[in-house]
Amino acid sequence: MGGMGSGKDTVSQMRGLDVRKWKRDGYLEPGRSGTWTWSRRGEVVATINFRVEAGRVVLSYRTRERGGEWRNMELPVRLDWTACHFGGKRAWFRCPRCNRRVAMLYGGGVFACRHCHQLAYDCQRETVGGRAIRRAGKLRERLQWEPGILNDDGWKPKWMRWHTFRQLSDRHHALVLCSLDGMQTHLDRIGGRLGGLRKGG
């Protein structure tokens, strides 16, 4: 695990702990302990031990700064609860750095909230073309078409109304055109740079 300000600037690049998932899976019961794992392509890439005490979760893990010596860390994280409108309670972590009530903590030398790590959401780093590709991909998934905007369109799902199908497919086609325009603009920029290099050479 890296330290604060280790150059990772989007939430997907950090290892996150989601209090909503922990509550849903029963991990927040006092006396509970175990190991949380992060996986990539089916392989475990990191683990963290935890134990739940009254009003808090204690995280146990190892960390090091820039290839230095490994250090054992034990980090208590306070839990908070708020009432839901239709009954029950919602769980929150209290950020160990700023005490902000948050649903997610992100790992580094210290687990802290997105604000303390100065993280952006991935969509905030997207280009217009990249955003269009992502949205078109979600529509293809909803339409049950083959992934990838350069693949052919599929058929209307049996359960979907024609009006809805036309709306979604029209929106998909508009997003594909937007993403292709973005790609063309990017290629034009690269072509301009290469042309400048040839002239300079």
Structure description:
The strands form two sheets. The protein has a six-stranded antiparallel sheet. It has a two-stranded antiparallel sheet with strand order 1-8. It has three helices and eight strands. With 201 residues, it is an alpha+beta fold.
**How many helix segments?**
3
Query: Compute the gyration radius: what is it?
Result: 23 Å
Write the H/E string, N to C: EHEEEEEEEHH
Estimated share of beta-strand residues: 25-35%
Kindly summarize this structure in a few lines:
The protein is of the alpha+beta class. The protein contains three helices and eight strands, in the order E-H-E-E-E-E-E-E-E-H-H.
Fill in the keyword field for this structure.
single chain, 201 residues, alpha+beta, six-stranded antiparallel sheet, two-stranded antiparallel sheet, 3 helices, 8 strands, 30% helix, extended, disordered N terminus
Topology:
Layout: E1 16-18, H1 19-24, E2 33-40, E3 43-53, E4 56-63, E5 71-83, E6 89-94, E7 101-102, E8 104-106, H2 128-143, H3 162-200
Antiparallel strand pairs: 1-8, 2-3, 3-4, 4-5, 5-6, 6-7
